[in-house]
Amino acid sequence: GAGVSQSPSNKVTEKGKDVELRCDPISGHTALYWYRQSLGQGLEFLIYFQGNSAPDKSGLPSDRFSAERTGGSVSTLTIQRTQQEDSAVYLCASSLGASLNYGYTFGSGTRLTVV
Amino acid sequence: GDSVTQMEGPVTLSEEAFLTINCTYTATGYPSLFWYVQYPGEGLQLLLKATKADDKGSNKGFEATYRKETTSFHLEKGSVQVSDSAVYFCALAETSGSRLTFGEGTQLTVNP
After folding, report:
1. Could you tell me which chain A residue has the CA closest to the CA of B40?
2. Category of B29 on φ-ψ map: left (φ > 0), alpha (ψ -120 to 50) or beta
3. With helix as H, strand as E and coil as C, how does B38-72 read?
4. Based on the number of CB atoms within 10 Å of its own CB, is A74 exposed (0-12), middle (13-18) or buried (19 or more)?
5. Whole-angstrom Cα distance, residue B87 to residue B106?
6. Which of A41, A73, B66, B80 sits a CA distance of 20 to 30 A from A87?
C-alpha cells in the first residue's frame, strides 16, 4: 500500500483479555518497528524486525508482550492478560533498510484502552 | 542510556509568531538527531534531521542546528501558520543501531 496501515484504529478491551494489533508495512520495506506512546509520555521502543534476522525484543516491557512478523511483511503485536497500564497508542513504522538514512514511515497507530 | 528532553507544552502562538521548541539530549556517542511532527489524526512524519555536529536540518521553514557543545537541537520557525498546529517530537538515534529514542512531544497550537 501507499503507507503503513494499522488495525484496528481503536480497541477497548477488558482487563485480563488478550489483544492482537496488526501492522501492514509499506511493500518492500525490510525493517519494521513497534513503539508505544502512553499519555503524556514520549514514544517507547518495543521491538524491531529487520529482514530474516532475529528481532530485537529488548524494549518489550514484560513477557505478556510478544510480536511476530510473517513472511517478512505483516506484523502482529500480541498482549496477553492485558492490564490497565497497557493503555496507550501503539505505533508501527517501517523502513526500506536498517540504516537511519532511509527514514521511517509511521502508521496512524492503534489506541488501546484497557478497562 | 540515551535520553531526550523537550520543553514542556502545550505551546500556543498567534499566526506569524516566532517559534522555538527546546530539545536537549544525553548520549554516550555521536547520535543523529531528528524532529518528527504528528498532525491531528495522522502518523508521525519526519520533519528534519542532522547527522553530525554543526549540521543544520531544515524543511517547510523549520530549522534546527545540531549543537554538540550544548547537546541541543532546538526547533525554530520564523513565522508559524495555523497549519503548523501539531505535536512535535525530538528524537535521537544511537550510533550503533537504528532504534529512535523520542522526547515526550510538544503540542503546538497556532491561532489565526
Report:
1. A108
2. beta
3. ECCCCCEEEEEEECCCCCEEEECCEEEECECCCCE
4. middle
5. 5
6. A73
Q: Are strands A43-50 and B3-6 parallel, antiparallel or unpaired?
A: unpaired
The 10s digit of each residue's pLDDT in A83-110 is 999 999 999 999 887 776 677 889 999 9
| B52 shares contact with chain A (CB less than 8 Å) | no
Q: B69 is written with which cell numbers? A: 557543545
CB–CB of A91/A9 below 8 Å? no
Q: How far apart are CA B12 and CA B19, in angstroms?
A: 10
Test A42 with B4 for CB contact under 8 angstroms: yes
A49-80 confidence digits (pLDDT tens) = 988 888 999 999 999 999 999 887 999 999 99
Select the residue from B7, B55, B59, B98 to test the A interface by mutation, using most A Cβ atoms within 10 A: B98
How is residue A26 annotated by DSSP?
A: P
A50 CB neighbours in chain B (<8 A) are: 98
Distance from CA of B94 to the nearest CA of A (A): 10
Chain B residues in contact with A106 by the CB 8 A cut-off are: 36, 43-45
